[in-house]
Amino acid sequence: MLVECYDERGAEVYEIIIKQIFQDLVLGASVDDxxxxxxxxxxxxxxxxxxxxxxxxVLFEDVANLTYNKANDTTMILIDNENYLPKILKELWxxxxxxxxxxxxxYQLEIKGDYTDLKSIVVDDPHSNLxxxxxxxxxxxxxxxxxxxxxxxxxxxxxxxxxxxLIRDDWIEKAHEFIGELxxxx
Length: 186
Hints:
By secondary structure, the protein is α+β, with helices and mostly antiparallel strands.
């Protein structure tokens, strides 16, 4: 973690704030590195965070078996991994009303019709979930009143430039410099 600021005490304070927010959101193990630039004279805050690699997306077919019974015109869904049941139900409720999904027990769901094509639906996306949590941290870290924000995030790096004025090109260059450092592991 590197916090750049002409005021050494200000840099220490922001480092403490960042560490506390990461601890509160349990993000420490999910982040590889971080760069921050604070300059109260220019009112700018640049923050770049490199996230760790996450596991791949979890598809419906990875955690449940879908079979179609022609006689009953019903798709049977047998849950293999109960941990994903809330997420499976959430995805199904996006497509169907709650009344259309019959659940005789906690490992079985039934839907009228042939819906075996559901097996390719994403049930869980760890990268997206982590990115959402990192953005939550970013918006907690940014100084209050810095409402003009430019998002320069790409792939595993979340990067924002925030200010209460017009965003200057040299601030964007600083953000790109941080992204380069984080990508190269400096």
